[in-house]
Specification:
It is a single chain. This protein has about 180 residues and is of the alpha+beta class. Helix 1 runs antiparallel to helix 2. The protein has five helices and seven strands. The strands form two sheets. It has a four-stranded antiparallel beta sheet with strand order 4-3-6-7. Strands 1-2-5 form a three-stranded antiparallel beta sheet, covered by helices on one side. The longest helix has 16 residues. Strand 1 and strand 2 form a beta hairpin. The protein has two domains: about 80 residues, no CATH class; about 70 residues, no CATH class.
């Protein structure tokens, strides 16, 4: 996992398109493995000013997109196979335009697959329910509520899998966002 994270970081430091990044990651990981292992990856690029999200889902859990207007729910499903599974990766870039107040939740299967003592999974319905219930809160608060909800659901001291959750909630005014600038 850490090798994959390092490879993603290296690949995204170069000015490449998301499909190219995914294909390069696939080639690198496929060449390294010999036992059928693979990695699911969700790569995204958000332009905060235009609010255009471009993304590729390589077999990862579908990200949740909850629209503020009308409460429409969308799941950013897989657009290609997992990385490293086959020598070639044919993926398609998907995109959507976000609006102020829209909420995105990207998560690992440690959230959706967490099970209680009876073996029931937390699942995507519970993820959606928690986000809808707390949609008026900040991104950090929604994230905290998700981790609390899964802990309450499992009633265990620790989870069986790692858990990563990222919540993004778009602000009303994209011009109020701070963008650091770097120079050589």
């Amino acid at each position: 996992m850490s090798a994959t994270a390092a490879a993603v970081q290296l690949e995204t430091n170069e000015p490449r398109k998301l499909c190219e990044v995914a294909k390069r990651l696939n080639s690198e990981l496929y060449a390294l493995q010999d036992d059928g292992r693979f990695v699911t990856v969700l790569l995204g690029e958000l332009d905060p000013r235009s609010r255009r999200l471009k993304y590729i889902n390589c077999g990862h859990n579908p990200a949740l997109l909850l629209r503020r207007e009308g409460g429409e729910v969308a799941w950013l499903n897989a657009s290609c196979t997992p990385v490293g599974l086959a020598p070639d990766l044919n993926c398609s870039l998907d995109e959507t335009v976000l609006a102020a107040g829209d909420i995105m939740v990207w998560y690992t299967d440690g959230l959706s697959d967490a099970s209680d003592k009876e073996g029931r999974e937390f699942g995507t319905k519970r993820i959606l329910d928690v986000v809808q219930l707390h949609s008026s809160r900040t991104a950090r608060e929604i994230c905290d509520q998700l981790t609390r909800a899964v802990a309450d659901f499992t009633q265990r001291d620790s989870l069986d899998d790692d858990l990563t959750v990222m919540v993004v909630k778009l602000k009303e005014d994209p011009e109020s966002l701070y963008f650091p600038t770097f120079s050589d």
